[in-house]
Design brief:
It catalyses: cytidine(34) in elongator tRNA(Met) + acetate + ATP = N(4)-acetylcytidine(34) in elongator tRNA(Met) + AMP + diphosphate. It comes from Planomicrobium stackebrandtii. This protein is an alpha/beta fold. It has 3 domains: about 230 residues, 3-Layer(aba) Sandwich (Rossmann fold), CATH 3.40.50; about 45 residues, no CATH class; about 80 residues, no CATH class. About 50% of the residues lie in helices and about 10% in strands. Strands 1, 2, 3, 4, 5, 6, 7 and 8 form an 8-stranded mixed β-sheet that branches. Helix 2 links the parallel strand 2 and strand 3. The radius of gyration is 20 Å and the shape is globular. The chain starts with a strand and ends with a strand.
Length: about 400
């Protein structure tokens, strides 16, 4: 059996995600689609809108065949490490290709860009260094260096676009891993990554959907942008918890943690660097909501996304020492499967190169324990202390 892999967050699962899955299957000619999905916290440093079980159910109901969890250490990492974790898991579970949505819509420019940066690595690093010295953030320094390197050349990917950036890192991770998976991309359609909802468009961004909900729209009012099955699952999730994940909801606990720990402890947490622990501490003293807090901390050097990742690690207690202790994914945590997915696992199980885990109780190593801890902290943010779901829920099955 032939599998195509996709790396996702489904925060929440919407019509654009459905299009991506269907096109990945069609473009690859695969028998099944395998999704590596972030757990309770996400790459942009945010708590997930709905928990990983709800998002797994949405994915299976929409036709995904296998859902496996991207461990916390990679799910909340900068783009290159996020890609490294996701690609390594797709390789380990035997995918013959991987497919990502992009603004570019064609794979050749990504291959060209990867070759250019490999051949001109020293020049690229020098340009990055020069750009950082001007005081801009590291992501903007990368963009400036790349723009300078490609100024007189044609046929390269536009790496100012968010999905293109992730796609480039997927390709980079696969090549560094020595993967034989074929890289594929499809054109991203509808709203852009950060866009608000626009009436009349059937495809909205997940950002826009979350924004509309927190501004007062009900789950039902967002039905134009998501499959019916996603709406039903979100309604059930809202009934279970009474709310959805957001930094505004989590902020009282985050603020308490920051003020309790103080600057000396804060700088031990992953991604907290360059003395920003002092600003974080002082800002938490005065800001009574998350948006006010972000406004005080954000600067040219520190983007919102980077600050949010810091806050995620502070909230969960994830340290620099822990971050540097992991070399790669240590297991494949199975969250859900279709009948085709189960058939595939039976077919491939002898060739899977990482332990296949279906119960939280079997996550005995540091990486797995971190995932369980992240779930406990996520539930605290939602006002719940019930960890039964994490330990008793078997992989969701959709026959």
């Amino acid at each position: 059996m032939k599998a195509v892999g996709i790396i996702v967050e489904y925060n929440p699962f919407h019509n654009g995600h459905l299009h991506h899955a269907e096109q990945a299957r069609a473009e690859s000619g695969a028998d099944l689609v395998i999704a590596v999905m972030s757990g309770q916290f996400l790459q942009r440093g945010e708590p997930a809108f709905a928990d990983k079980w709800a998002r797994t159910q949405m994915a299976l109901d929409a036709g995904i065949d296998l859902v496996i969890e991207l461990p916390y250490v990679y799910a909340t990492a900068q783009a290159s490490d996020f890609a490294k974790g996701g690609i390594a898991l797709l390789e380990a579970i035997g995918c013959s290709s991987f497919c990502f949505g992009s603004e570019q819509g064609a794979i050749a420019p990504f291959l060209n860009s990867r070759q250019l940066l490999t051949e001109h690595a020293a020049e690229y690093q020098y340009l990055i260094h020069e750009a950082v010295q001007t005081g801009i953030s590291y992501p903007k320094a990368l963009n400036a260096a790349y723009k300078a390197l490609t100024a007189d050349r044609e046929g390269f990917a536009d790496l100012t676009q968010p999905n293109n950036i992730l796609g480039f890192h997927y390709l980079e991770a696969a090549q560094r891993l020595g993967s034989s998976m074929e890289p594929l991309t499809i054109q991203r359609i509808g709203a852009n990554y950060h866009d608000s909802i626009e009436a009349g468009l059937p495809i909205a961004s997940a950002t826009g959907i979350r924004e509309a909900f927190f501004k007062g729209d009900s789950v039902e009012q967002l039905s134009a942008y998501m499959p019916e099955t996603s709406i039903a699952t979100l309604k059930n999730s809202e009934n279970d918890y009474g709310t959805f994940g957001s930094w505004e909801g989590f902020y009282p606990l985050l603020r308490f943690t920051v003020l309790r720990d103080g600057p000396e402890q804060l700088k031990q947490y992953a991604e907290v660097t360059e003395g920003i622990e002092n600003l974080i501490y002082q800002s938490a003293k005065t800001a009574d909501n998350f948006e006010a807090f972000i406004a005080l901390v954000k600067s040219k050097r520190f983007t919102r996304t980077r600050i949010q990742r810091m806050m995620t690690h502070i909230f969960t207690g994830f340290t620099w020492q822990e971050l540097h202790s992991f070399a790669g994914p240590e297991y494949i945590r199975l969250l859900g499967m279709s009948s085709t997915g189960r058939l595939y696992l039976n077919h491939i199980k002898k060739n899977i190169t990482l332990p296949l885990v279906s119960r939280a109780a079997d996550l005995n190593g540091p990486m797995g324990k971190l995932d369980i801890h992240a779930t406990a902290m996520y539930l605290q943010g939602l006002g719940s202390t019930d960890m039964k779901k994490e330990f008793t829920t078997p992989p969701i099955y959709r026959g």
